[in-house]
Amino acid sequence: MTVIATENLSKRFPRVTALDGLTLDIGPGVTGLVGANGAGKSTLIKILLGLSPASEGSASVLGLDVAAGSATAAAIRERVGYMPEHDCLPPDVSATEFVVHMARMSGLPATAARERTADTLRHVGLYEERYRPIGGYSTGMKQRVKLAQALVHDPQLVFLDEPTNGLDPVGRDDMLGLIRRVHTDFGISVLVTSHLLGELERTSDHVVVIDGGRLLRSSSTSDFTQTTATLAVEVTDTDAHPDGTATLRKTLAGAGLEITADGRLLYVDAADEDTYDVVRDAVAGLGLGLVRMEQRRHRIAEIFRDDDTHHPTNAASGDTASTTAADPAGSPHAH
Ligand SMILES: Nc1ncnc2c1ncn2[C@@H]1O[C@H](COP(=O)(O)OP(=O)(O)OP(=O)(O)O)[C@@H](O)[C@H]1O
Predict the structure, then answer these.
(1) Residue 223 vs residues 79, 81, 195: alpha-carbon distances, Å
(2) Which domains are delineated in the chain?
(3) 244: CA distance to ligand 1 center in Å?
(4) Of ligand 1's atoms, which has the minimum distance to the CA of residue 85?
(5) pLDDT along the chain (335 residues), means of 10
(6) Where is the segment annotated Disordered (predicted)?
(7) Ligand 1 pocket, 13 CB below 6 A?
(8) ipTM of this model?
């Protein structure tokens, strides 16, 4: 089932092309949309919401064409929630008043709007504070109000534009947990943007990476982080073998295995199941202690670093979405 589809979608402003022939097919679940600042993430969301027309190409949301006219646009808004990137909350009203208002705007009757508001604010973790004016809230609380107003009319899909912006590491973790639960508890599909690839690794079922308005990669998170056929092996030293790692490497190479070393870790190419036995027997035969022998998993960021070396666009443009997005230093979840 397709939740969001775009076909050759472009958006040109007088001085910049924000989206450039973007073709996407996104299914249900949590999808992370990653790209550096200016990659075109917000532009894509605005087109999908019908707030901004595309220059070229087509797009549909929940099977509805975003350019089909006002009746379809209204139908999309009924089914879709939107959490904008920038601060957009009125400071003088309380979270309850604001979210009730947004629920009423979405067409809910007064009683249902009040009930849904109470439930949604509780779900995002706002309790007694919900009666105080929003102007006195912390950034984390404001982000929660923005999330609540996107969810209050029980949409099938929400667009969350940089929901972790401005949050400290604990606040980020909480927000990412909440986003995950939006899908697992309510079955709502999520398109969440970030310029940090690492933080979407844990939260998303699917990751789409764009750079300069173009699609760089779209695949399921498990494809990104799939287990490779490489074993990571670490051993102790002994009196007989003061450099156990080097000794084991020599022994395994002698047994015909492909090995690379990274400090005390040996990466052994596990061509088949027998490789485990060969390594175990070699370690036991040498009398070394086996600290670890495990299948190596790729992290998303690692795969992008590999891709960067091959990708012609990146090589040409230098400071790109993937290099920025893959920067593990920027994300508390990258390691
Ligand atoms: N209304 C506009 N007029 C002119 N240029 C625009 C407009 N909106 C966006 N752009 C440009 O289009 C490009 C994509 O912007 P967009 O906001 O979609 O990026 P983004 O990936 O969401 O980045 P950010 O995280 O910084 O918002 C940028 O170069 C931006 O300057």
Answers:
(1) 30, 28, 20
(2) 4-224 (3.40.50.300), 227-297 (3.30.70.100)
(3) 54
(4) 27
(5) 95 95 95 90 94 94 91 88 92 97 92 96 92 95 96 96 91 93 94 86 88 89 68 92 95 91 88 86 94 74 54 36 37 34
(6) 304-335
(7) yes
(8) 0.95
